[in-house]
Design a protein that fits this description.
mainly alpha; extended
């Protein structure tokens, strides 16, 4: 039991650290690429999914748990993450972005 609990805590810590790096990186890229006159609007649009997405995700997961049970409903976010990991590098040119001289 203790090993499973420690593994869960380590996974949670790694997820938190990766999320912090990801959020900082995405905001830095947006600030660098957005025109100076529209930076606040771009940042607002970028933060909207995280504010509005949590309640929507809770609703979807509640419906999935009701329909499929907890064991199968947990696979929905995992499937979403796997699809994102596969599709974003294949379809996005983020690796070719270069800094703009202002």
């Amino acid at each position: 039991m203790c090993a499973g609990r420690c593994a869960g805590m380590c996974a949670g810590m790694c997820t938190g650290m990766c999320t912090g790096v990801s959020m900082s990186m995405s905001r830095s890229i947006l600030q660098e690429c957005a025109p100076a006159t529209n930076q606040s609007r771009v940042m607002a649009v970028q933060s909207l999914p995280s504010v509005g997405g949590d309640p929507l995700g809770a609703l979807i997961m509640g419906l999935a748990v009701s329909a499929f049970g907890v064991r199968w409903a947990v696979s929905l976010p995992v499937l979403g993450v796997v699809l994102t990991i596969i599709s974003v590098p294949a379809n996005h040119s983020i690796w070719q972005l270069r800094s703009l001289d202002r």
